Amino acid sequence: RYNLMRILLYGFGPYRHFKDNVTTRVLCKIPKRRGLTKIVFPVRFSRTQFVKAVTKCRPRWIVGLGQCSRGRRLRIEPRAINRRRSSKNEKARPIVRGGAPELFTNLRLKLGRQSRLSRNAGDYVCNFSIYVILETLRRRRHGIRYGFVHIPCDYDPRKAATLVDGALTRTVRQGSARRGGGSISTARKKT
């Protein structure tokens, strides 16, 4: 389905009191294909792990999956903020000192009624990964498309995998027809 198009699809391993992560189960349910690289990252503030994956894979599209502890619908994250913290008790710090206050994704995933647009990706490792990848793509002037989806921890992994896989297939078909990259924006998008 994805032909020779390179896609990086990533999720995360267990963290805090969660013994597993729904994104790991979702990644396992998405079939292997030529051109699709699936990675499960450890949950840690490591810029290197994200930058190395992008550099090694050289994808045309990147889709990140993160677990959220609340909610019933998939949340499409349109932006990342330049803020991180390990716990609610800790004072937030910038991810990149002097960096843009927020960066916006450039891949609009269509997941249907099972999803909603989010206003806040939080300030934990999911937001960190979004910001680091977007900042890297912007700095290197890559035309790579990037999107991120939060999946509720008790969401059916098979259903999420079907929705994500369908969105990837549609994205690749549209991208093959258009053949264009997208720039990473620091400006707020008008809706």
Describe the SSE topology:
Elements (H helix, E strand, L loop, with lengths): L6 E6 L9 H8 L6 E6 L5 H11 L3 E8 L5 E4 L1 E3 L20 E3 L10 E3 L7 H15 L5 E8 L4 H22 L13
Helix pairs in contact: 1-4, 2-3
Strand order of the largest sheet: 2-1-3-8-4-7
Name the overall outline.
globular
- Sketch the major β-sheet: 6 strands, mixed
The structure class reads: alpha/beta
| Radius of gyration (Å) | 15 Å
The counted number of beta strands is: 8
Q: Quick check: average pLDDT?
A: 88
Report the helical percentage. 25-40%
- Unreliable spans are 179-187
Q: Beta fraction of the residues?
A: 15-25%
- Listing every helix as H and every strand as E from the N terminus to the C terminus, the arrangement reads EHEHEEEEEHEH
Separate helix tally:
4
